[in-house]
Write a sequence for this structure.
Protein backbone atom coordinates (compact mmCIF):
# COMPACT_ATOMS: atom_id res chain seq x y z
CA UNK A 1 0.00 0.00 0.00
CA UNK A 2 1.38 3.40 -1.02
CA UNK A 3 0.52 5.19 2.21
CA UNK A 4 2.17 2.50 4.33
CA UNK A 5 5.34 2.55 2.26
CA UNK A 6 5.57 6.34 2.43
CA UNK A 7 5.09 6.50 6.21
CA UNK A 8 7.78 3.80 6.62
CA UNK A 9 10.14 5.91 4.47
CA UNK A 10 9.50 9.04 6.53
CA UNK A 11 10.02 7.09 9.77
CA UNK A 12 13.32 5.64 8.52
CA UNK A 13 14.57 9.10 7.54
CA UNK A 14 13.73 10.55 10.97
CA UNK A 15 15.45 7.56 12.62
CA UNK A 16 18.62 7.83 10.53
CA UNK A 17 19.04 11.60 10.47
CA UNK A 18 17.71 12.61 13.88
CA UNK A 19 16.95 9.90 16.47
CA UNK A 20 20.01 7.71 15.85
CA UNK A 21 22.56 10.57 15.69
CA UNK A 22 21.19 12.08 18.94
CA UNK A 23 21.28 8.68 20.62
CA UNK A 24 24.83 8.00 19.44
CA UNK A 25 26.01 11.52 20.25
CA UNK A 26 26.73 12.39 16.60
CA UNK A 27 25.61 15.63 14.98
CA UNK A 28 22.20 15.08 13.37
CA UNK A 29 21.24 16.71 10.08
CA UNK A 30 19.88 20.27 10.36
CA UNK A 31 16.22 20.45 11.42
CA UNK A 32 15.11 21.59 7.96
CA UNK A 33 16.79 18.56 6.34
CA UNK A 34 15.16 16.17 8.79
CA UNK A 35 11.71 17.61 8.06
CA UNK A 36 12.00 18.11 4.28
CA UNK A 37 13.91 14.83 3.96
CA UNK A 38 11.18 12.91 5.77
CA UNK A 39 8.69 14.10 3.18
CA UNK A 40 10.98 13.46 0.21
CA UNK A 41 11.91 10.00 1.49
CA UNK A 42 8.19 9.27 1.85
CA UNK A 43 8.02 9.88 -1.90
CA UNK A 44 11.19 7.88 -2.61
CA UNK A 45 9.80 4.86 -0.79
CA UNK A 46 7.16 4.56 -3.53
CA UNK A 47 9.72 4.29 -6.36
CA UNK A 48 9.87 0.46 -6.69
CA UNK A 49 6.11 0.39 -7.32
CA UNK A 50 6.61 2.50 -10.44
CA UNK A 51 6.29 -0.96 -12.03
CA UNK A 52 2.62 -1.14 -10.95
CA UNK A 53 0.05 0.04 -13.52
CA UNK A 54 -2.41 0.81 -10.73
CA UNK A 55 0.07 2.25 -8.20
CA UNK A 56 0.36 5.71 -6.63
CA UNK A 57 3.01 6.81 -9.13
CA UNK A 58 1.01 5.62 -12.15
CA UNK A 59 -1.99 7.60 -10.89
CA UNK A 60 -0.12 10.77 -9.97
CA UNK A 61 0.19 12.46 -13.34
CA UNK A 62 -2.34 11.29 -15.91
CA UNK A 63 -1.18 9.76 -19.18
CA UNK A 64 2.46 10.68 -18.60
CA UNK A 65 2.94 8.77 -15.33
CA UNK A 66 0.76 5.92 -16.55
CA UNK A 67 3.08 5.68 -19.55
CA UNK A 68 6.16 5.76 -17.30
CA UNK A 69 4.67 2.98 -15.15
CA UNK A 70 3.84 0.87 -18.20
CA UNK A 71 7.39 1.22 -19.55
CA UNK A 72 8.98 0.58 -16.13
CA UNK A 73 6.80 -2.50 -15.62
CA UNK A 74 7.53 -3.88 -19.09
CA UNK A 75 11.27 -3.22 -18.84
CA UNK A 76 11.64 -4.89 -15.44
CA UNK A 77 9.44 -7.93 -16.04
CA UNK A 78 6.25 -6.72 -14.32
CA UNK A 79 5.18 -5.76 -10.81
CA UNK A 80 7.51 -6.95 -8.02
CA UNK A 81 10.22 -8.04 -10.39
CA UNK A 82 13.33 -6.03 -11.32
CA UNK A 83 12.27 -2.86 -9.50
CA UNK A 84 12.22 -4.88 -6.26
CA UNK A 85 15.84 -6.02 -6.23
CA UNK A 86 19.28 -5.03 -4.95
CA UNK A 87 20.01 -3.93 -8.50
CA UNK A 88 17.09 -1.50 -8.25
CA UNK A 89 18.50 0.02 -5.03
CA UNK A 90 21.81 0.58 -6.86
CA UNK A 91 20.08 1.81 -10.02
CA UNK A 92 17.78 4.35 -8.36
CA UNK A 93 20.63 5.68 -6.19
CA UNK A 94 23.17 5.88 -9.02
CA UNK A 95 20.56 7.47 -11.26
CA UNK A 96 19.94 10.18 -8.66
CA UNK A 97 23.68 10.83 -8.25
CA UNK A 98 24.13 11.07 -12.04
CA UNK A 99 21.09 13.33 -12.45
CA UNK A 100 22.60 15.55 -9.74
CA UNK A 101 25.41 16.48 -12.13
CA UNK A 102 23.04 18.08 -14.61
CA UNK A 103 22.95 21.85 -14.23
CA UNK A 104 20.73 24.08 -16.36
CA UNK A 105 20.05 27.79 -16.61
CA UNK A 106 16.40 28.75 -16.20
CA UNK A 107 14.67 32.17 -16.22
CA UNK A 108 14.62 34.04 -12.85
CA UNK A 109 16.46 31.33 -10.91
CA UNK A 110 19.63 31.29 -13.02
CA UNK A 111 21.75 28.13 -12.93
CA UNK A 112 20.06 25.34 -10.97
CA UNK A 113 20.77 21.63 -10.38
CA UNK A 114 18.05 20.68 -12.86
CA UNK A 115 18.35 16.91 -12.54
CA UNK A 116 18.09 16.94 -8.74
CA UNK A 117 15.27 19.48 -8.90
CA UNK A 118 13.22 17.25 -11.22
CA UNK A 119 13.68 14.20 -9.00
CA UNK A 120 12.85 16.29 -5.92
CA UNK A 121 9.73 17.53 -7.72
CA UNK A 122 8.57 14.00 -8.55
CA UNK A 123 9.18 12.71 -5.02
CA UNK A 124 7.27 15.62 -3.44
CA UNK A 125 4.35 14.95 -5.81
CA UNK A 126 4.39 11.18 -5.07
CA UNK A 127 4.49 11.77 -1.30
CA UNK A 128 1.66 14.30 -1.47
CA UNK A 129 -0.43 11.84 -3.48
CA UNK A 130 0.34 8.83 -1.24
CA UNK A 131 -0.39 10.73 1.97
CA UNK A 132 -3.53 12.19 0.38
CA UNK A 133 -2.44 15.71 1.35
CA UNK A 134 -3.54 17.42 -1.84
CA UNK A 135 -7.01 17.82 -3.21
CA UNK A 136 -7.79 18.24 -6.87
CA UNK A 137 -6.34 16.75 -9.99
CA UNK A 138 -2.89 16.04 -11.32
CA UNK A 139 -2.30 19.63 -12.50
CA UNK A 140 -2.81 21.03 -9.00
CA UNK A 141 -0.60 18.30 -7.53
CA UNK A 142 2.34 19.04 -9.81
CA UNK A 143 1.98 22.85 -9.73
CA UNK A 144 1.88 22.72 -5.92
CA UNK A 145 4.93 20.46 -5.85
CA UNK A 146 6.75 22.76 -8.30
CA UNK A 147 6.13 25.70 -5.94
CA UNK A 148 7.69 23.74 -3.06
CA UNK A 149 10.73 22.81 -5.17
CA UNK A 150 11.14 26.42 -6.34
CA UNK A 151 11.01 27.63 -2.74
CA UNK A 152 13.71 25.11 -1.77
CA UNK A 153 15.89 26.14 -4.75
CA UNK A 154 15.63 29.81 -3.77
CA UNK A 155 15.82 29.54 0.02
CA UNK A 156 17.87 26.43 0.71
CA UNK A 157 19.43 24.86 -2.42
CA UNK A 158 21.82 22.87 -0.17
CA UNK A 159 18.80 20.71 0.70
CA UNK A 160 19.30 18.84 -2.58
CA UNK A 161 22.63 17.44 -1.38
CA UNK A 162 21.10 14.58 0.60
CA UNK A 163 18.79 13.53 -2.24
CA UNK A 164 20.72 10.33 -3.21
CA UNK A 165 20.68 9.19 0.44
CA UNK A 166 16.97 9.85 0.64
CA UNK A 167 16.33 7.82 -2.52
CA UNK A 168 18.48 4.92 -1.30
CA UNK A 169 16.78 4.84 2.11
CA UNK A 170 13.33 5.05 0.51
CA UNK A 171 13.92 2.19 -1.92
CA UNK A 172 15.49 -0.04 0.77
CA UNK A 173 12.59 0.63 3.14
CA UNK A 174 10.13 -0.26 0.39
CA UNK A 175 11.84 -3.57 -0.30
CA UNK A 176 11.96 -4.39 3.42
CA UNK A 177 8.25 -3.52 3.63
CA UNK A 178 7.39 -5.90 0.79
CA UNK A 179 9.70 -8.60 2.17
CA UNK A 180 7.86 -8.75 5.48
CA UNK A 181 4.64 -9.65 3.69
CA UNK A 182 4.01 -13.13 2.29
CA UNK A 183 4.64 -12.16 -1.35
CA UNK A 184 8.36 -11.51 -0.85
CA UNK A 185 10.70 -9.95 -3.42
CA UNK A 186 13.23 -11.21 -6.01
CA UNK A 187 16.22 -9.60 -4.26
CA UNK A 188 18.86 -11.00 -6.62
CA UNK A 189 16.97 -10.23 -9.86
CA UNK A 190 17.67 -10.88 -12.73
CA UNK A 191 19.17 -14.08 -11.30
CA UNK A 192 16.42 -15.63 -9.18
CA UNK A 193 17.61 -19.03 -7.91
CA UNK A 194 14.82 -21.41 -6.96
CA UNK A 195 15.13 -23.67 -3.90
CA UNK A 196 15.61 -27.44 -4.27
CA UNK A 197 12.51 -29.64 -3.92
CA UNK A 198 13.50 -30.84 -0.45
CA UNK A 199 13.56 -27.19 0.73
CA UNK A 200 10.10 -26.42 -0.69
CA UNK A 201 8.69 -29.51 1.02
CA UNK A 202 9.27 -27.87 4.40
CA UNK A 203 6.35 -25.61 5.33
CA UNK A 204 8.50 -23.10 7.21
CA UNK A 205 11.49 -22.87 4.87
CA UNK A 206 9.13 -22.57 1.91
CA UNK A 207 7.80 -19.32 3.37
CA UNK A 208 11.26 -17.69 3.52
CA UNK A 209 12.69 -18.88 0.19
CA UNK A 210 9.66 -19.47 -1.95
CA UNK A 211 9.12 -21.89 -4.83
CA UNK A 212 9.34 -19.02 -7.33
CA UNK A 213 12.70 -17.93 -5.91
CA UNK A 214 11.34 -14.88 -4.04
CA UNK A 215 12.60 -14.26 -0.52
CA UNK A 216 10.44 -13.11 2.39
CA UNK A 217 10.36 -12.82 6.16
CA UNK A 218 6.58 -12.52 6.38
CA UNK A 219 6.19 -11.31 9.96
CA UNK A 220 3.25 -9.17 8.82
CA UNK A 221 1.41 -11.95 7.00
CA UNK A 222 -0.53 -10.94 3.89
CA UNK A 223 -0.55 -7.40 2.51
CA UNK A 224 -3.22 -5.36 4.32
CA UNK A 225 -3.23 -7.55 7.44
CA UNK A 226 -4.13 -6.29 10.92
CA UNK A 227 -0.43 -6.56 11.82
CA UNK A 228 0.44 -4.29 8.88
CA UNK A 229 -2.06 -1.68 10.09
CA UNK A 230 -0.63 -1.87 13.64
CA UNK A 231 2.91 -1.33 12.36
CA UNK A 232 1.60 1.56 10.24
CA UNK A 233 0.06 3.17 13.34
CA UNK A 234 3.29 2.77 15.34
CA UNK A 235 5.44 4.20 12.52
CA UNK A 236 3.04 7.13 12.03
CA UNK A 237 3.18 7.93 15.75
CA UNK A 238 6.98 7.63 15.80
CA UNK A 239 7.36 9.91 12.76
CA UNK A 240 5.03 12.52 14.23
CA UNK A 241 6.81 12.36 17.59
CA UNK A 242 10.28 12.41 15.98
CA UNK A 243 9.47 15.44 13.84
CA UNK A 244 7.83 17.27 16.76
CA UNK A 245 10.87 16.60 18.96
CA UNK A 246 13.34 17.57 16.22
CA UNK A 247 11.61 20.87 15.49
CA UNK A 248 11.21 21.66 19.17
CA UNK A 249 7.41 21.51 19.08
CA UNK A 250 7.68 19.25 22.09
CA UNK A 251 10.47 19.29 24.67
CA UNK A 252 12.47 16.10 25.14
CA UNK A 253 14.68 15.47 28.18
CA UNK A 254 18.33 15.53 27.11
ZN1 LIG B 1 6.42 -2.97 -3.93
Amino acid sequence: MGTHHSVSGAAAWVAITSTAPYTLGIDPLPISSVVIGAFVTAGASLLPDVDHHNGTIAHSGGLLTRGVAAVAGAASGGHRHGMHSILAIAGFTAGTILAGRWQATVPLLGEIPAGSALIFLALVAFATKAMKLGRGGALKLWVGSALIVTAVLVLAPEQLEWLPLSVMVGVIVHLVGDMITTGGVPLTWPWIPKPPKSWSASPFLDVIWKKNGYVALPILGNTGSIREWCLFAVLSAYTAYGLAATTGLIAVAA
User: Anything to note?
Assistant: The two ends are 36 Å apart (CA to CA). Residues 2-24 form the longest helix (23 residues).
